[in-house]
Amino acid sequence: MEAQARGLLETEPLQGRDEDAIASADSPSMLSEEEKEELKAELVQLEDEITTLRQVLSAKERHLVEIKQKLGMNLMNELKQNFSKGWHDVQTTTAYKKTHETLSHAGQKATAAFSNVGTAISKKFGDMRRK
User: Fold this and answer.
1) 77-86 burial string, b = 16+ CB within 10 Å, else e?
2) C-beta atoms surrounding 31 within 10 Å
3) Between residues 3 and 108, the one the model is more confident about
4) Which family is this sequence assigned to (predicted)?
5) In whole angstroms, how far apart are CA 114 and each of 86, 94, 100, 111?
6) Residues 49-89: pLDDT tens digits?
7) In angstroms, rounded to a whole number, what is the distance separating the alpha carbons of residues 120 and 34?
8) pTM
């Protein structure tokens, strides 16, 4: 039963081997004229249903785009939202937090070191002026 349901829901078109399996199962020479006519009618009906479903899907996709436009949701906004969410997710990771803390601490140390070097250079210049 599950295999039958899965087969009905497949979105891929029939492959060559699938068509061969179907052809060998119901060889046209083994069918009566009445069966052939019934199958042709069923084929036409299925093709019509597929066309109708494609039209309905297309209409629903257009309606979806219209609703998104009315809500101000366009591709650029969606990209911005996805990027913002992604960046927020990165910032909340433990690895990011540890890296941020380490770099922040290193930056404070570097700032202090540069300040000390600047003070020492200023002091040396001051000593050189006095001589």
Assistant:
1) eeeeeeeeee
2) 13
3) 108
4) Belongs to the TPD52 family.
5) 35, 30, 21, 5
6) 999 999 999 999 999 989 988 888 777 888 888 899 999 99
7) 105
8) 0.40
Q: Please compute, for residue 1, the number of CA atoms within 13 A of its CA located in the half-sphere on the CB side.
A: 0
Report the distance separating Cα 87 and Cα 9, nearest Å: 37
Please tell me the predicted confidence (pLDDT) of residue 56: 97
Question: Half-sphere exposure of 37 toward its Cβ, with a 13 Å CA cutoff?
Answer: 3
Domain boundary assignment for the chain? 36-92, 94-123
Q: Are 28 and 36 in contact (CB under 8 A)?
A: yes
Q: How far apart (Å, rounded) are the C-alpha atoms in residues 102 and 96?
A: 10
pLDDT of 121 higher than 90: no
